[in-house]
């Protein structure tokens, strides 16, 4: 039995996954685990791909499979990247535009997960302005699409049981993940060896569905599966390694929903869930660029702005689905899509090799931009901590806080001020740098994506209390933090500790 009929439950499950991811990325409260939506997407992909691959194990069928995947994923991705490249031409500096082109190339060639594993962390501040950070998951899926049919062909040629073989590989992938064999957080988060088990879980659900007649009570699994997913969205946090043991909850939950195969579900078959599920890929492509654009223009992430940001994301996704996904996939020849893909890749390569089309600007302006982008005075990992470092890392920072100190306290925006302060004041100003990525200078704030932030601020506050510095300059990407709840208390603390000059940038 091969599932050729459209699965309403799976489409509705896509809606759950998408909404979780979008709300999490927009910083909506009570969805601290919304990133698990990607894990749910992986389970869905594994289920669907297993059905297609097992039906098309001959070479012609596999080629057709690759073409179908190309037409499903690439047109909307190319369209999004083209618009971002046009946007970047008029709004980004040369360094930023060059970085965008490199990210775009890695996305188009589906190795962005490997690229980001080396160059950035999903949860650090350097990723906040990467318009294409979210494409890492597409790269993981595409790599899975390439390897999976070949794996099934080999298993069948060797006459090994497909289900047993996939179970063994799943167990190996899960063991690699939980034992952290690959080492770094980035490797575990981004790379396919630690993500394959999630897709293979979906594959095993497919095999079980077609080989065994499911009892009627299995339909009740849908409710339990949805509860598992919702609980994971609400209670999980991005602290530490991911995937971890906790990833079993969303993966098991998604597997239960799919296994239940309930086509008249109140949760997944309603019109809203079906509409969101249909446009989920395009909305996923567009929601993150919308978020980055809001940060680029310093738009505060207030409730009303988040609401409109989500609306814009869904509107762009709906437009992309209707005009790009359906049109270029179903009505336009493969050759045209290949030409469009190649042209976009060529454009990105041109931008990269011209250093962000640097001839757009005069030499004077380029010098100003290069000076602004120089991060050597930030003293990264020493006086400007990354998300993996706790307060003790400041022990390597030679800045000692005294009564005469000019304290620079905050996140990467505070660190950005160091080159200018050093250039203008040199050694005449006793600057004490206490900056940490993704960590605003707000006492008492606990950030899910920055586990050490509260402790860092508590210790900086203790330093201030002990030394009573003359001036404290606080700087951060304020619009994305809950200032109203914490900032007044922080200012009161500084005044109570006899800080004469309080500067907020």
UniProtKB/TrEMBL annotation:
The lineage of its organism: Bacteria, Pseudomonadati, Pseudomonadota, Gammaproteobacteria, Enterobacterales. This is Acyltransferase. Pfam families: Acyl_transf_3, SGNH. The keyword Heme does not apply. One of its GO terms (biological process) is lipopolysaccharide biosynthetic process. The chain crosses the membrane at residues 12-28, 34-54, 66-90, 131-155, 162-182, 188-209, 221-238, 303-324, 336-353. It comes from Salmonella enterica subsp. enterica serovar Heidelberg. One of its GO terms (cellular component) is membrane. Residues 9-319 form the Acyltransferase domain. Residues 395-494 form the SGNH domain. The keyword Transferase applies. One of its GO terms (molecular function) is acyltransferase activity, transferring groups other than amino-acyl groups. Keywords: Acyltransferase, Membrane, Transferase, Transmembrane, Transmembrane helix.
